[in-house]
Amino acid sequence: MRGKAGVVLGLAVGYVLGTRAGRERYEQIKTQADKVWSAEPVQRQVVKVKEFAASAAMALPSTLWNSAVKVTKAAASKGTAEERVERVKAAGAESADEIQKTAKVSANAAKKAADDLSTEGSGS
Fold first, then answer.
1. How far is CA 100 from CA 16, 72, 89, 103, 107, in A?
2. What gap in Å lies between CA 109 and CA 106, rounded to an integer?
3. pTM for this entry
């Protein structure tokens, strides 16, 4: 889906930039592009993408923040330097696992959203 859309977009941009048909043809192309962009099916997909982006964009940063807090608390905890280092290492390892899991969930959600858009867009 992404490859096809990129090719079509590239061809359209290249044509618009490279055409010598003048302002009239540019306006025709622009009007058609505006019609496509304003079409209900396109706008439904735009809403889906915005909703996904809003939810997915918050998952990873909050996990990173929570991980930084855990490591900082472990470093600031009481005990000998060796004990604190061990707690920081453990918190860091746990945090790395959480970050990796969250990143995988976000990536899988993005792939599913793209597949859903591709399936809906192809009329399947």
1. 43, 19, 16, 5, 10
2. 5
3. 0.46
